[in-house]
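Annotated sample (chain length 141).
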Amino acid sequence: MDSSAEASKPTTVRGACLCGAVQFEVDLPARFCVHCHCSMCQRNHGAAFVTWFAAPKNQFRLIEGESALTRYPSSDKGSRSFCSRCGSSLFCENERDAEIIDITLASMSGPSGITPQAHIYFDSHADWVNVVDELPKMGSS
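Output written by the structure step:
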């Protein structure tokens, strides 16, 4: 890639919930980006899968809306955070990777340069969606 293309990549991206009460920014690069097909993501988002990207917590800043952010303990090892005003699901954190925060890619404002690298928990994917891309499809382990 030439240096002009590298220079045009964003180094910080902003994101927000649907109503704008919760606003945040993330310094890039992201650690990874995946489509998650686990049953918790399906139920939490009301969708066949959700696209998350992960960043070290020291690259994440909550700009506004701490009082609107609600954390739900979705398992004994992790939590999901959402806007209590509009219901937007935004973040996922777990004990296994305590220094990482997973962020919904769809909550980002504008181009991020982040693209999904794989499908995870694909063994529990919704049978009513036909996934035809060439990304790796990994099971739950």
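Annotation: The chain has one domain: 17-124.
Annotation: DSSP finds two helices and eleven strands in the chain.
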